[in-house]
Amino acid sequence: MTEGFCTRCGFKIETFKGLGACPRCGTKGIPCLSENQVNVSINVHELRVLCIWAENWALAHADVDEDVVYAIALRLRRQLGEKDTSLTLADELRALRDAGYDVDTNLPAGDRP
Fold first, then answer.
1. Which of 6, 58, 74, 110 is in Cβ range 3.0-4.6 Å of 66 for a Cys bridge?
2. How confident is the model at residue 81 (pLDDT cuts 50, 70, 90)?
């Protein structure tokens, strides 16, 4: 059992003792404790609203690492299983591009995972 994982890259961390940064990505953000893992009942639409709001907030604040928002959205998307669900505006833009539409935007989120 690991003590937790990096919020940004998902790397499983055996122990937080003496940890100053993630061993994989180097982020100094607060990692997630395994003991705090919970299951939540939420509608996919509600989840999209929360992710898009978080994405927009992160993009509006230069001192915020928006990669954390995309990493969390990716972990959530994986939990949805077979559903091909866009949880962020970046997901929506990518889906439009994949469908053959020419999408022009000034949002840096357009090329995020």
1. 58
2. confident
